[in-house]
Each structure stands twice: as structure tokens, then as C-alpha cells.
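Minutes, project huddle
Topic: does the predicted pose make sense with iron/sulfur cluster bound?
PN asked that the exact inputs be recorded in the minutes so nobody has to dig through chat later. Recorded below.
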Amino acid sequence: MPDTASPCVSCGACCAAFRVDFHPVELEGGAFAWETGVPAAMTVPVTASLVRMAGTDAPEPRCLALEGEIGVAVACGIYGARPSPCREFDTVHDACARARKRHGLPPL
Ligand code: SF4
Ligand code: SF4
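Predicted holo structure (C-alpha cells), as shared on screen:
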């Protein structure tokens, strides 16, 4: 989910559509952590070189860090420390439209 001056603040669909996996070096205390790093308690281990945002692999996925109501008003509870997949995801990607469709929202 990109910055706050975007349609994303009234969407959040991508935070409740895809697995969000990243390297543990982005966790709090890690060598490549953004700001404080991703709280380990909000992740689940996958392999020695991969962790996942908790909730993103649930049958009805929703990242544990997502706050608010999808399609209405949302925020990332760890915005400054969110992992790289979230930083790289953008509204220009096809996956944005797929995530929005999954939640009954039209493409941008
Ligand atoms: S699905 Fe698209 S519009 Fe919605 S939060 Fe993600 S990037 Fe933003
Ligand atoms: S960490 Fe934040 S931006 Fe990334 S999926 Fe979770 S709520 Fe969305």
C-alpha cells in the first residue's frame, strides 16, 4: 500500500488479498529494517530466509497490521516500517485491480 495521498487510504484491498513475504533482515533489529523494522510478532516464519505478514495466508487473507475497513478507510499500522513488498506494490500494477476486484471494488 503506497503513501497516504493516494486512493489507497480508502482501499486496502491488496493488504487483504496476497501473501506478503520478505527476508528476515527487514524485521526489527535486522540489517535492512525500515525505521524500527517490522515487528516480529506480526509475522510468521516460513523458511530460514523468509517471513510472512501474519494473516496474509489465511483463507480470507488480511494482514494483521491493516487497520480500518476495506473500501472505506484504512491505514497500515506499521506504515513507516512496512516491508519491501508493500513499498513496491503500486496502483499501476495489474495486481492492484485484481485485489480491488476481490473486494468488489472497481479498477482505478
Ligand atoms: S489495491 Fe491498489 S488502490 Fe488498493 S490499497 Fe492496494 S495499491 Fe492501493
Ligand atoms: S504491512 Fe501494512 S502495507 Fe503491508 S500488507 Fe500489511 S497493512 Fe498492508
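Observations noted during the meeting:
- Residues 1, 7-8, 11-14, 89-91, 96, 99-100, 108 surround iron/sulfur cluster (ligand 1) (CB under 6 Å).
- The beta strands are 21-22, 43-47, 50-53, 66-69, 73-76.
No decisions taken; revisit at the next huddle.
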